[in-house]
Amino acid sequence: MRPARARRAAWELLERVDDRDEVGRASSRTDEPRRCNAASCNPAVPGRRNSLQVQAVVDLRVATTTPHRPRASRIERRPMTEQLTVRNETSVPILDALSDRWSPRGFDANHAIADEDLTAIFEAGRWAPSASNTQPTTLVAGVRGTATFDKIYGTLMEFNLAWADRASVLIAVTVEHERDGKPLRWAEYDAGQVAAHLSIEAQSRGLHTHQLGGIHVDALAEALELPAGRTPITVIAVGQHDDSDAVSEEIRARDSSPRSRRELSDFAQIER
Fold this sequence. Notes:
Helix content is 29%, strand content 17%. By secondary structure, it is of the alpha+beta class. The chain has one domain: 3-Layer(aba) Sandwich (NADH Oxidase). The longest helix has 18 residues, at 187-204. The N and C termini lie far apart (55 Å). The relative contact order is 0.20.
């Protein structure tokens, strides 16, 4: 999946794909990854959630240390860093983790996510709302350099192969659509809540996320050996943003593109 010609093909596809916002190394180690759910990663965290239903299976082998018109976001360069600060224009002040959230493709390939941050991200997802507390979501994650990371990366569509290998973590979001012969009608809605919550927690910790729709679903399910009835619906790349020359010019150009949203009056119709 990783030769130079594949990367060239990825760039060609990347230029044709307009997914500006959300959706758009090979490892020889064979030792078993350390697996944990959100509670056992941090036993001190109490919770009522059923860790058998909402669990994060993680490969941690190498983890270390006034109607409003939609204006373009302001992008500022932070002094002494290679990151961009995105200030999304909002009609009223909202939480920084929400107003500053964006989805870069340029990630720092040398950044190693801390165990504390990774556990907190999963805890945020674990406590997302769930219809009738069915908790149909399971996360399967791999830190960069692990076999699980490579499995997830290898099932991405070509335009995502051009950049996702630089992320610190890749998280596959999977859902159970049926239980005891009954459909879980809101399963994918619940999974979206999990993705949103963990993304905001990551943002609050100085990390960034990019949610990918460009995945080969069947190949990912097979690579992760998911049980029957459990389906991957998205992959989330997590890491620290990098705007240095280490990131390709094409990616840096896309990351610096203005962002906008529909007018608030169009987005929300409110009778006061």
